[in-house]
């Protein structure tokens, strides 16, 4: 059975000014259930992640500041909101959901986190609404538990996965691949194992042909036995922050390319949703739900 991490705090623990884009975390499960794509049995509510696993990816001094809510104001501004206990609980549950999803994907082929994709959090910093890096933590967990030998992170959010790149820079068993808007946030990039920086306004043909050429080559050369996919829908032409111009069909084709590569090479995949900031919430929710539908149709049981 395909497992999907969801907890009410994903949608209801953010400051007032951030509530609109975060409505998607509440609406995505409802839409999937309404369309009959999944049942309630597919969902699980993750507990907060234990400290020992946070420290596989984050430095202890940074974690102590988060835990004690003592991060300096300058660092909180870098994150984008004031630290509080509810936000910490949210991040810990998201990270645990990605870990448990990865474990489930080893059995079923695919698993999802309704939230996640917190790829701007580095080993000792938070940034861009990200406190803890869920896929970097989960990658470190799989290696620590010897559940995977080589991992590929496919980050197709419109923003570079700078925190993921920084955390895993010295971990040769994890290959970090980020295809993103070159002139978009973060304006100070880190160095992934492979970065493809796209110019503003890139449309379907160039984006999809680049991905179709690149991804099979990465799998062939790196030979991963597990994939983490960050499926941000801020690549859409409707997105107010993205600066790229993918159509809805192009975004669905992007997902299909990733999932078909996983099928072809027999690779389990955990999917975190990442960003989406279109003015109409329906555009965001529909695009994310198509990621679920595509993955479940190609890989799910």
TrEMBL record:
Q: Specify the domain of life of the species encoding this protein.
A: Bacteria
Concerning InterPro entries, the annotation shows:
HDAC_classIV, HDACs, His_deacetylse_dom, His_deacetylse_dom_sf, Ureohydrolase_dom_sf
Q: Which Pfam families match?
A: Hist_deacetyl
* One Gene Ontology term of the molecular function aspect: histone deacetylase activity
Swiss-Prot/TrEMBL GO biological process terms: epigenetic regulation of gene expression
**Record has Isomerase as a keyword:** no
KW Nuclease (keyword) present:
no
Q: Which residues form the Histone deacetylase domain?
A: 25-288
The family classification in the record reads: Belongs to the histone deacetylase family.
- Descriptive protein name: Deacetylase
């Amino acid at each position: 059975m395909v497992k999907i991490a969801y907890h009410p705090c994903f949608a209801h623990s953010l400051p007032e000014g951030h509530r609109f884009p975060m409505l998607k975390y509440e609406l995505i499960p409802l839409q999937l259930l309404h369309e009959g794509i999944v049942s309630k049995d597919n969902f699980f509510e993750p507990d907060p992640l234990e400290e020992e696993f946070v420290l596989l990816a984050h430095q202890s001094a940074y974690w102590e500041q988060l835990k004690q809510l003592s991060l300096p104001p300058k660092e909180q501004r870098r994150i984008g909101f004031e630290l509080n206990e509810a936000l910490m609980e949210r991040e810990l549950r998201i990270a645990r959901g990605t870990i448990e999803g990865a474990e489930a994907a080893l059995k079923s082929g695919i698993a999802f986190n309704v939230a996640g994709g917190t790829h701007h959090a580095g080993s000792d910093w938070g940034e861009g609404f990200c406190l803890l890096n869920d896929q970097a933590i989960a990658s470190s967990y799989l290696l620590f538990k010897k559940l995977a030998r080589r991992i590929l992170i496919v980050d197709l959010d419109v923003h570079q996965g700078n925190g993921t790149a920084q955390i895993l820079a010295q971990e040769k068993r994890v290959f970090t691949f980020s295809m993103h808007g070159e002139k978009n946030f973060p304006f100070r990039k880190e160095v992934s194992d492979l970065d493809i920086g796209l110019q503003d306004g890139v449309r379907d043909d160039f984006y999809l042909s680049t991905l179709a050429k690149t991804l099979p080559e990465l799998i062939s050369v790196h030979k991963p036995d597990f994939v983490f996919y960050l499926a941000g829908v801020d690549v859409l032409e409707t997105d107010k922050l993205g600066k790229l111009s993918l159509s809805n069909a192009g975004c669905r084709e992007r997902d299909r390319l990733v999932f078909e590569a996983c099928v072809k090479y027999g690779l389990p995949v955990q999917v975190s949703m990442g960003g989406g900031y279109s003015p109409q919430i329906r555009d965001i929710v529909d695009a994310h739900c198509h990621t679920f539908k595509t993955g479940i149709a190609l890989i799910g049981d």
